[in-house]
Amino acid sequence: MPAQPNSQVLNDILQFLVRELGQGEALNLDADSRLLDMGLINSISAVMLQTFVEKRYGVKMPRNALTPENLESPRAITALVERIQQGK
């Protein structure tokens, strides 16, 4: 069973996704929403997410971290942010 994500990071990611990628639509997202299947993640939104994470958490997100696996869900994005914060 995977580790539970940091709830504050997860909440921040969910709020960002709804605010920035919802395009005015009411998005009903949870930790396991499949962002790629929903069409919410593309090259532009991935860069927007990267910029948000870097500014919000003061970390550098490597471009090669923007993979489908890391962007699949808010939970996967949270795990990526936590790995970067831990220097892994």
Describe the 3D structure.
The chain has helices at residues 7-21, 43-57, 74-85. It is mainly α. It has a single domain (7-85), classed as ACP-like (Non-ribosomal Peptide Synthetase Peptidyl Carrier Protein, Chain A, Orthogonal Bundle). It is globular, with a radius of gyration of 12 Å. The model has no long low-confidence stretch (mean pLDDT 88).
Indicate the topology.
Layout: H1 7-21, H2 43-57, H3 74-85
Helix pairs in contact: 1-2, 1-3
The CATH topology is what? Answer: Non-ribosomal Peptide Synthetase Peptidyl Carrier Protein, Chain A
Q: Approximately what portion of the residues adopt beta-strand conformation?
A: under 5%
Question: How would you describe the oligomerization state of the chains in this entry?
Answer: single chain
Classify the secondary structure makeup into a structural class: mainly alpha
CATH architecture, by name, is Orthogonal Bundle
Shape estimate:
globular
The CATH H-level superfamily is ACP-like
Total number of distinct structural domains = 1
Tell me the number of helical segments per DSSP (H or I, 4 or more residues long).
Answer: 3
Number of strands: 0
Whole-angstrom Rg: 12 Å
The biggest sheet, with number of strands, parallel, antiparallel or mixed sense and barrel status, is: none
Percent in helix: 40-55%
Q: What is the string of helix and strand elements?
A: HHH
Q: Would you kindly provide a brief summary of this structure?
A:
The chain is mainly alpha-helical and 88 residues long.
What descriptors fit this protein?
88 residues; mainly alpha; Non-ribosomal Peptide Synthetase Peptidyl Carrier Protein, Chain A; 0% strand
